[in-house]
Each structure stands twice: as C-alpha cells, then as structure tokens.
Amino acid sequence: MSDPGNRQQATDWSRLSAQQIHSWILQRSQATGQAYPAVLSQLPPEARYVLERAQQAMALEEPTRQAQAVQMPLLNPAPPLGAPSMSLVGAEQAWVAANHAANAPSPASQLLDPVQNGHMDQQQLQQRQAELIRMRGSQLGYQTAVNGQIRENGTRPGMSRTSSGTVYSNGPRVPLPGSRAPSLPPPARHGGLSQEQVATLNAHNNAQNQARYMQESRQNSWHREQMNLAQQAVPARPFQAVNRPVNDGSIGAARLLRLGDPLSQLLQMKDSYDAVQAFCADLFTERASLKTTFTETGTDQLKTFEIGSAALPRYFYAAKEAGLSSRQINLDGPREAVRMASFGHPVLVVQCARLTVIDTYRNGSVVTKTGRLECQLIQTTSATAMDDIAQSALPILKIESLEVEYTSSTESVLRSALVEQQAEVIKNSRGPAKLYIVPQSPVGTFGVTESELRCMEVAESVGQLQELFHFVQREKLGPMEGLQKLADFYRQAQAWSSQDIVGTPNAVATPSHAQSPAQQAAR
C-alpha cells in the first residue's frame, strides 16, 4: 500500500474499503510508534472520507447493536493495537486525549472480517484476532468505568479481569449440563480507581442520564402536542374506508334529514321558483336522477317514474302549487357504506328499509307514506349557498341518485282544520249545523297529487332531452339556438363515423370537436 503523502496514488485510497484503510493505520502505528489519531491525520481526504462513511453506517446500526448486545456505547477512536497494557486511569486519560484529537471510527466496531480484503494469511489472522481481543477488553473495561456500572474490580457482569489488567467479555457464560461453575479468585479492590473517582464517575453518569431523560420527555411532549394540533386542524373525512359499513348512519342520513326544514321554508315562500332551483342545485349533482315508485291503495298497482336533475325544480314547484306546505323525512335504522364507483371516486350509499315521509297540506290534510330508500351521495370540493360551514361540521355531500319506493300511504286531517270549519258553519247556517266538514283530499289513490304525477310523466317522456338541457345551460344559449347547434354537432359526428366505416386508415379515435357535449365536459 502506498504512502499517504504521495498524491499520485490518491485514486488507490478511494478504491480501498474501510477495513483495508484501518489495517494500514494499525500497521503504520506499530511500525512508527505514532498514536492512532496521528496516523489518521496524515491520510489524504479520500481515505478519511471512506472512514467517515463507514462511521456513519455504524452510527445508524448502533441502536440495534446496543439492543442485541450488552447495551453499552462504543467509544472512538480506539487505542492502537499492540500498545502496552495500562490501568483504567491511564486508559481513561489516553481515550480522552484521543477523543479530543480526532473523531475517527472505532477499530473494534469496524474490523468486521480481516480476511475479506485478501491481505492476511492464516497466521496473521490469528495474531490480529488475539490483538483485537486484548484491545476490545481494554475498551470494555474503560466503558464500564464511565457508564457508572462498576464492581469493586471495575468489571461488569459477564466480564472478568486478569492479573495484567486486561478485561475479557464474551457474553454470559453458560455452564454445560452436569458441570460446575468455575471458582473465580477474589477480585482486586477498586480495580485501579479510588472510591472518590468511582463516586465522581457515577454522579456524572447519573446527571447525564437524568438530563437525557428530561430532554427525551420534552421531545415526546412536543411531538404529542403537535399531533393533537394536527388532528384538530384536519376536518373529519366522510369516506373512512372502502366497503366499510357504518351502522349508525351519521353522515349521509344526517344530510338527508336536513332536507326537511329548507324545503318547508321554500314551500312557505311566494314566487319561489328561483329559490327552488338554487335548492336543487345545492342538493343534487348535474347528473342526478330521482326514481320514485308509488303503490296504489287497495290494488297494489305500481307506478314508477324517473326524472333527471333538470326537471327536479319543476317537480318540487308543482308540489308547492298543489298545496304542499311542509315535508318531514324520518329514517328508521339507516345503514351507510362507502363504495368505489367506476370512475374511481368513493360513493357514500345510504339504505333505509323503514322510510316515513309526512306531507302536510295547507287545507289541513296530512299524508303519511312509508317505504324504503336508497341514496348515493358524492363529496363536493366547495361550499354552496345552502351549506353553512360555520354552523355545520357535516361534509358537503350531493345526491347522485335517489330511489324511493312507497309501499303504503294513509291520509288524516288535523283537528284544528275541523274545528275552524265547524265554527264557520255554525255561525253562518240557518238550519241545523253540521258537526264535521272534512276538507277535500289533495292526493289521489297513489298518495300523491295529480300535479306531481303529471309533472313526473312529462319529465320522464322528455328525459331523452337531458343532454340538450345540459348543453343549453352550459353554453348559455336559447332553446332553439341550442337545439340547432346540438343537431349540427350530431350531423358532424355521424359524418365522421361514416368515414371511419368506409375505411379511413388512420381513424383511430373520435376527434375532440366531434365528441359529445358530455365527453367535452368530462375533458
């Protein structure tokens, strides 16, 4: 191996491993009699960089090695191999001076496999292992003193001291079955340290441990405080897991129950069609659908209607014009689950097998309908006019599809309405007064008003014009102009399709200008 002072051989140092450089330092220290840090300071930057990288790797593995071994930190740098034996006081002075001289890695911790580099024969390997054992024993003896875990002879459990002052440690000794533990000679008193020195080291070690414990406690407290603040700052997420049922139904069901009061307020307003449109925009998505099934009383005949979001404002407004004054929704035992839709976004599904809807009309009639409900809601990214984030912690959800099936309906009359009619008849009549006058029923045999039925029938018949409605609203066009542009678009798309059928070789995909308005909106 070349001289470290020769700069022409710098590339050779960068190609060597940490074990090879460490072996060279030990040989140089034995040959010249210089200390380990002095030889280390003569190395070129390339060699010191290799040793520093090895030291960093050992520092990362140090916690695992401490947990698996005797839980005793390694000191660096180590004294040179082959140095004469010294007492614990001399070792302490030498190691303290070495620590102030340089921050080199510990030789005992980095000399992993000396045969791996191929520069030692079997005899040199045996000599190196013997030197390593002696050096490691001196290191463990010093570490035992500074850690404050000292016996009277300066050793720890699992260590023994020879007459020359060398400490050996091979872990706990387990006797063979049937054998007796060897009798050790009585240890030398104090092991080279006076009682004052031992007490000073113990007190210093206890102070360091207490300071380290207080620092770790403060750090843990700070981390816990930061975690609590982060959890408080993050809003509650409605979609906790995919296909995970929620038994209490506390998110989507609460959103559906909040429909009663706003809808009742809208029904009390005059000329409130614009407000009804805003209400539907806040509640339903642009692609929402409402599917309702009514059961005729006495015959069990079913009528099913499905309308889109464009016809929903007209449907609610028709119910208002028919005399509906309030609507109350009750969900008994709803269940919720989060599912993944085909477009990759989570959908909150609310199912209720016992649904009750109570409609109150202005003439005092009360219609109670029972059935089942299934609703799919998706989360929106921005607040709307009907959602007050400051007053409600619920996530902003909109209905994507709503399916309601009414299985029965019953009608009743409020007593207050009967009393008012009776008093008026008694006051204005000349003959015998009638006891009760029942107001005319606003609903038919299906439990819904005729205006609502006609509105749903018309909306279902023109449901195929849903794309036209979206196109006109998005482009802000009139009915005739929007219909003309949509027809031109379909003619152009049909022309492109016919060219593809004839055999256009490069027609792989539909051009962007020939895509449907729904596809362009998705883009």
From TrEMBL:
Domain of life: Eukaryota
One Pfam family here: LIM_bind
Region (Disordered) location: 150-193, 504-523
Sequence ranges of Low complexity compositional bias: 509-523
UniProt feature, compositional bias: Polar residues: 160-169
Protein name as it appears in the record: Uncharacterized protein
Gene, per the UniProt record: Mo05022
